Amino acid sequence: MAQPGKGLAQVLAERLVRVSAKWEVKLTARGTSEDEKAFYQSALGSAAQLLCTVCTHYINEPDRSKVVSKEIQMKLGPILVVWAARYMGEFLGDVSARLVAFMTASVVDDAFNQVRRASKNWQVCGLPSCSVKKDLKVCARCQTVRYCKTEHQRADWKIHKMYCFTTEY
Predict the structure, then answer these.
(1) Which InterPro entries match (predicted)?
(2) Looking at residue 141, what DSSP letter applies?
(3) pLDDT for 161
(4) Residues of the chain predicted below pLDDT 70
(5) Is 103 in the same domain as 126?
(6) Is 147 helix (H, G, I), strand (E, B) or coil?
(7) Whether 31 and 65 share a structural domain
(8) In terms of domains, do 140 and 99 share one?
């Protein structure tokens, strides 16, 4: 169980570090069947994808060590680089490469921002009948929906107010 105040990304990264050493042995051992290797590769890929998805919500944090500690990044980084190269073009390799990019705050931040906006439905006006995608302004209270103009926010308020709350992130 995670300690109080620990962020989800930190907890996921710590758990990935913990299992990666053991499972890396299974992935590279000669006696491991192809089915077992596929299982470990899939399980690690899924865990890494969850961490990657959580990290996209912290893309605006310039100090990535506030999301995942430097200590854990130093432990996780090298194995992610190995997986990114070994499994290039496969699920585990692609996810590993994205995590390396996040932790190094590289130029793929734009891609992370696109994922973040899409997951928050920030690419189109929040009024269902509108499809405007430019110059969207965020709801000041919840910051979970965007509108192209004030009139659309007012028109959607009857529905939106049921879901509108002050966010903590």
Answers:
(1) Znf_MYND (IPR002893)
(2) T
(3) 84
(4) 1-6, 106-122, 167-169
(5) no
(6) strand
(7) yes
(8) no
Q: Residue 145, class by beta-carbon neighbours within 10 Å (0-12 exposed, 13-18 middle, 19+ buried)? A: buried
Nearest Cα neighbor of 69 from 24, 124, 12 is 12
pLDDT on residue 34: 93
Q: Same structural domain for residues 84 and 154?
A: no
Cα distance from N-terminal residue to C-terminal residue, the chain: 22
Q: What is the CA radius of gyration of the chain?
A: 20
Q: Are residues 76 and 153 in the same domain?
A: no
**Residue 137, SS3?**
strand
pLDDT at 116 (0 to 100): 58
User: Is the Cβ–Cβ distance between 152 and 130 less than 8 Å?
Assistant: yes
CA distances to 28, 52, 163 from 70, in Å: 27, 16, 36
Number of domains observed in the structure of the chain:
2
pLDDT value of residue 148: 93
Residue 124, pLDDT score: 85
Whether 80 and 12 map to the same domain: the answer is: yes
Is residue 76 domain-shared with residue 126, that is, in the same domain? no
